[in-house]
C-alpha cells in the first residue's frame, strides 16, 4: 500500500475552502470572526431542495429556516473562493451566519473596476489579493499633524469616497409588519399552536380550539405591537436626519506655525447638506445645541459636549482642538479629548473669534463605523445567553415528550385491539396519537415561564431599577462575584479638598521637606519674595516664586474647566480644586483672575490622558511662560528632577493613601517659548501634593457586608491609586481591617532586562509571597497571647477619623509639622501593631463559614436544602488577600498563553485578589472575562457609574449602571438610586425570579402530565376529555394559578445560598418524575376502582357499541370520575410547588395567590358534589354522567374519591417536602464522594 508523503499529508489537512481575512482595527466583540468558509449553490441542490419542500408540505423549508447548519448542508457546497457566491461565517462564540458575496462597481478617476464585498453584522469587507479586508478609514494610522496637513481643506472628491464608505446612515432598515408577522407566525411555538388548533377542530373541540386560537392571535398581536414599538424606538434612536454646514474643495485654509489659519470669508461659502451625505474627510461646522452627526475631530476652538447617551455620565466634557504633534490618532484612548462622537450633544462651541470664523470638525467615521453605530450593533446582535436554565428548558421538553411516548406505548395494545375490532379507524388512531403530543406541551408554557421575570421587573421599576434585557433578571439570581468601581460607586462623586502639602526647606537639616498641612488654600497665595528658597541645587530659583505660590497658581490654572450659564462644568475634582482658590474663570479668553486683579493666561492645554496619568498647561504671568503639570504622584515623581523631590515623598504619600485620600502631585518649570507636550512634561520641579478626600457613600459598608454575608465575592476595580484603593477597601469592608494584604506591583529592578512582579506585604514589606504559587514565604501566624489586645489597638489606630484628628491637632493645635522623623514613628507603630493580625482574620472567616454551615443545617432540618445549588460558596480560609496594580495585571495577562508558571499565578490571582487598582477601562473588561472563566458557575456582575466602565458593564453577566437616565445603553440594568443598594435588591429579585421560573416550569410540566394521564386512561376505553372540560382546566384552574403563583415577593434577606439553575438536575427530575408517578397511581386507583363498582356501566354499553361518534364517547363514568378527581390534583400540585424561603416569601403572603387557591377550591368542591344541580351544568357544559338508566353514581363514591383526594394531597405535599430533599441529600453525598475521587481544578488556569 502506498504511504502518503509528509507534504501530501500536510496538504490533506489544509482546508482549501477557508478564506483569508483581516479584522477591523476597532472591532467589537459581536463582530469578531473566527473563520470563513466559501460556498456556492449548485443548481442540482436547489432542485432537490424545492422538490423536498413540495413533498414534505413545507416542512423542509421550515427546518432549513430554523436550523442554519441544515440549510447550508441542504442547499450549498464548499468551493474555492473564485467560484463562491456565499460565505459561511463562524463568530468567536461559534455562531453561524450565511452571507452573500456582492459585486460593486467603483469609479476611480475615469476608470471603473469591480470589487467583491460582503457585509457581516454591519461591518463591510472587500476582496483584495485573495484576502477580505475591512472597509475602514485610515485615520488611526496617521499622526495628528498628518491629519491636519492632509484634511484641513475638506473633501475634494466626495463622489469617489461615497462609493467606498457609503452614506452616513445609521438607520436600521425598516422591517414591514408583514415580515415581522411572518417571522413570528413561522416560529416553532406558533406553528405548533396552529397544528394543535387544527387537530382540535378535527376532533370537534370547537370551543377550546377557538379560545386557544384567539389567545394565540392576541399573543401574536401583542408581540407584534411590542416588536414594532421596540423597532420604532430603536430606529428613532439610531436615525439622524439633519442639515449640516459643510466646507468642501477648499484651498483657503492654511497651516502656519503649527496652527490652522482660517480666513474670515470662509464662513460665507459654507454649503448645506443632509447629514446622510457626510463622508469621511468632510469639514463640518460645529454649532451650539448641536447633535453630532458622525465621529469627527475638532480642528479648531473648543466644545462642551454631553456624552450621557454613550456612557451614562451626565457631566459635560470639554473637547479641545487637535494638537499639531506626532502622536498617532487613537479615538478610543488618548485622542478622546478632541474627538466628537456621533449621537452626543454639543452644548456650546467656543472660539475667541466665534462668529467671524467657523469652528470646524473633520469627519473620521460615518454610518455604523461610528461609536453610535457600534451601540446600535451591540443591540441588534446581543451576546448569546448561555444561562443553563434557558438551554435546559428545551431539553426538559424532550423529557416530557419521552414520558408522553411511554404513555402512548401503554395505550397502544388497546388501540390496536380497537382497530382490529373495528371500533377505531387508523385515521383516528393517528389523530389521537398527535393529540397526546399537544397535551404534553401546554400552550401557556412560554408565557408562564416569563411570569417570574415580568413580576420581578415590575418590582425593580418601583425601586427605580430599570432593565433593557429581561433575560438578565434570572441570570442575576446566580451571581457569585460582584465587582465595583470605586469613585462614584463606592465613594461619593464629589471630592473635598482636605488640604495641600507644599515643598519647603529645612534649614536645620539642610534638605527639602514637606511644609505643614495647609487647609485654607488662600494661605498659599503669599507674595513675600524674601522667603524664596535658596536651595543649592537651584531647583526652585528658576521659578522665581516660592513653592506655595506656585502650587496656588497650579490649582487656579491647571484644569480643563469651562463655564456654561455661569456654572463651572468639568471634572468634580478640578471644580473643587479651582473653587478653593476663589479665582474666576474666563474660558473664552483662556484667563483665570482674582478679585484683586491678578490674572493668569492659559496659553496651551494638554488634556488629561489616562495612559499618561497627567495633564499640563502652558501659562503666562507677568510676561513669563511656565509649564504647570498635575497627575498621579507615581508618574510625577518620574518626570521631576530627583533633586526637587523630598526623601520623605513615599512616606507622606503612603500615609495619606492609607487613610483613603486621593493624592494629586504637582510640578512646574519655566519655559523660553511654547513647545510640545514631551518637552513640557519633562525635567520638572516638584512643587507639592493636593490631598482630596473621597468619602464613602452612607450605605456602601452595609451593602458590602450584606453581600459578603451572602457569600458573594466582592472585588474593587478602580483606576485610582493602589494605596487609596486598599484604604477604601478596608473602610468599606471589602477587606477586613485586620486582614493581611499582599500587593503585587512591578519591581524597581529588572531581571534579565525584563519587568518582574513583586508581591509584598502592604504593611510589612519584608514579608513576601512566593511568586510561583502566591503563598506566604514566612509564617504569618499570630501570637495567641497578644492577638485580641493588639488587634483591637490596630483597629482603633486605622480609624480614619482618629488619624485626621491626630494630624489636624499636630498641625493646628500643637503647631508641629509632620516631617520625616514623625512619619518614621507613625508607620513603625502601625507596622509593629500589624505584626499579629491574621488570627483574627482567620477567626472572622471561620465564623462566616460556621454561620453558613449552621444555616445549611437549619435548611436541612426544614427540608429546604434541595433548593440550593450543589456547590460550595465562595470562601477562603487564607489569612490574607491580594491587591494588584494595572501594570502588573497587564504583564501577567501577556504571559498566560506562553508561560505555564505565569498562567497558574494568574489563576491563583483571580481566586484571591480583591483589589485591582490603576486599571484602564479595557483592563476592567478583560478582568471580567477572565473571572467568568474560573468556574463553570462563576457568574460575574459589575456595578459602576457608566463613565469609564462601559466595557466592563457590557462584558459582565449582569451590569448595573448608576445613572440618572431611566435606561442606559451602557448596561442591561440602570439604577436611578446612586448607590450600590441596588445590587442587593437586584440579586434578591433575580433569585426569586429564577425560583419562580423553576416552580412555574415544574407546575406546567405536572399539569400537562396530569392531563396526559387522564387522556391516556380514557384512551383505553376509546374516550376523551370533553371540550368544556379542557376549557375549565386550562382557563379556570391553570392560568389563574400559574399567573398568581409568580407574584410571591422575594425573600427579605439575601441568603448565603444560591438557587439551582439546572432543570435537568436530580432534585428537579426527582420531583417531576416522582410527582407524575404519584398522580398516575392515584388516578389509576380511581380508574380501576370505578370499574369494580356494582353500579358501573362501561362506555361501550352506554353508547351501545357505536364508537364512530367520538363526541358522544366522551360521556361516561370514567370521564366523569377522572375529571372531578384530577381537578383537585391541579390545585394541590400547585401548593406543593409553591415553596417560599430561602429565596421567596411564604406563599400565603401572596394574597392574590392565596385568594385564587381558596376560590378555586370552593368552585371545585361545588363542581365535585353539586354539578348535577342544575342539570345543564353536568349535561350540556361539562358532559358529565351521574345516571344511566337504572345505574347511578352514588354519593358515597364521590365521598370516597374526595377522601382519596385528601390522601393524594397529603402524599403529594409530603413527597415534595421530605422525599425529594432526603433523596437529593443522599444523591449529593454520593456524588461528592465520586467527585473527590476524580477531582481536578475547575479553574482552567490551574490545570496542567
From TrEMBL:
The keyword Transcription regulation does not apply. It holds the Pfam family E1-E2_ATPase. Signal peptide: none annotated. InterPro entries: ATPase_P-typ_P_site, ATPase_P-type_domA, P-type_TPase_V, P5A-ATPase_N, P_typ_ATPase, P_typ_ATPase_HD_dom. One of its GO terms (molecular function) is metal ion binding. Residues 36-111 form the P5B-type ATPase N-terminal domain. GO terms for cellular component: membrane. Keywords: ATP-binding, Magnesium, Membrane, Metal-binding, Nucleotide-binding, Phosphoprotein, Translocase, Transmembrane, Transmembrane helix. The keyword Magnesium applies. It is found in: Membrane. It is a multi-pass membrane protein. It catalyses: ATP + H2O = ADP + phosphate + H(+). Its EC number is 7.2.2.-. The chain crosses the membrane at residues 47-64, 185-202, 208-227, 394-416, 436-457, 1003-1022, 1028-1045, 1066-1090, 1122-1140, 1147-1169, 1197-1215. Residues 272-378 form the P-type ATPase A domain. Belongs to the cation transport ATPase (P-type) (TC 3.A.3) family. Type V subfamily. This is Cation-transporting ATPase.
